[in-house]
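Lab channel / #folding
Pinned by the channel admin:
"Please post every new chain as: sequence first, then the structure tokens as a reply. Keep commentary short and put observations after the output so the thread stays searchable."

First post following the new format, from NK:
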Amino acid sequence: MVKKILLCVCAAALCVSPLFSRGKSDNVTDERQREVVIYTYDSFISEWGPGPELIRLFEEQTGYTCTMLDVGDGAQVLSRAVLEKDSPQADVVIGIDNNLLNQTLAQDILIPYKPAGIEELIDEWLLFDKSWHLIPYDWSNFAIIFDTQSGLPAPDSLSDLIDPIYAKKLILMDPRTSTPGLGFVAWTVAVFGQDYLEFWKALKPNILTMAPGWSSGYGLFTSGEAPLVISYTTSPAYHLEYGEGNRFQALIFDEGHPYQIEGAGIIKGAANIKGAQAFIDFLISAQAQNVLPLTQWMYPVNREVELPASYAAGAPVAHKQLSADSSVLTEAVEAVMQLLAE
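Reply from TO:
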């Protein structure tokens, strides 16, 4: 789910939001019908992310009030919606990706919605949920980002990451809370198959930390805590765009790279279904999609959007696409975390 470089996780004061303290008078109900409440992740709603501008444009275009709330990283968006399944507080979730698809559908927390004309806007392979519970809005390939000033040789494959020269040199994210963390687990399953735990056993000494989310993990990397981090092929475009040069580079491995497609969905039982549909329609429009490249640092899904020059210079192409069956990832995550805890 990728994304603006942050040095700390943005906090959201959910407990004091007026959303959670409203009464049930008719006037408040009418007000709620003009508000679209969205759960998303920290980097999306940060002042550097796409959230603030998307809110402004959506409100200007539709007349709705839009409230976006940070509930952690992508996997935590799903967890929050599941916790509130019997009494939904939000209308839309943003940031649930293809690796969480099976888990999301099994929870029965979303309703299907197919925006008009979506198949003319978006390439078919990006439509990862043909049941239309999750609508794609951005994508990128996962990659290891390398600090070229570290004095270390760059690894050429996942297997190279177990070399002792990288002891405590790799920053990962917790796959239980972070979609990049889950994406790295999916990468190891796709490459090593049933032997993925053997790879993790060998990798363990080289992991500096398992950060709770992408923002905190990438922030540790850019502050120099370690020379290797899991992120996206598009991440270095940010550094080029803002004049930081090509110190941080996405490494392209011959074995291939998994992709992340991030989706948005409408919560089952939401208070404002009509407003939620309007937001989904807006999110895949060219107006909204043009906001993403220089704030979200992911590829937009709308093929009408032109990418900035920093993408051509700083976002290398993964020549081989990998994926893992999302139905096996829950078991894989449990096995990996158990191994790391031993």
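NK: The first strand starts at residue 35 and ends at 40.
TO: also worth noting, Confidence is low (pLDDT under 50) at residues 1-28.
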